[in-house]
């Protein structure tokens, strides 16, 4: 991402995974019966601080983002790689060599040679690639990451259910039910369990319905047909909107 524009919205920090710290984290999770794992699920910045070592963005395999508003919300992102196997196509060797040798081209600045791979992170469905010369993340182009379309994945119900149950509110409810059951408050505990199950079911259903509506809306937008008119007076032709460059 262009740091000059991006840092007006979020601060960005680089971290490198530490094997020793990760082992200690696993031991701590076992000793606390999974509570440490649950705590770090709620607080992603604690998870990174406990298992990683701060480093430069160039060396990082984990990125922490922090909003600059009064809420200071943290987000954890993993640095990923794309191997550009298409650049090994012999039929396009001349074109590929020209792009890679042009020092002003984006490809020349982002592709790590000789492995032909690109380093990137994804934030809110937008991919940002690492510029080797500028030492910063910049917004990706279609040349590397495919057609100009929005891809919406429908999250499975079991994942929505797990995410809802791991909410701190329901975790507290589970603890409360266990406490009341130990004190023989059976009726109250059963009522609370039923109410919690109904609340979880309605929440998962609502999120699922919203995801389906968004998916249908994006699909109809991606498949929209448009007419392209040429400046040279050539015959207009129709294409799917998502494949426009």
Automatic annotation (TrEMBL):
It is found in: Membrane. SUPFAM superfamilies: Calcium ATPase, transmembrane domain M (SSF81665). Signal peptide: none annotated. The chain crosses the membrane at residues 23-42, 188-207. Residues 11-131 form the P5B-type ATPase N-terminal domain. Its EC number is 7.2.2.-. GO terms for cellular component: late endosome membrane. It comes from the Eukaryota. Belongs to the cation transport ATPase (P-type) (TC 3.A.3) family. Type V subfamily. This is Cation-transporting ATPase.
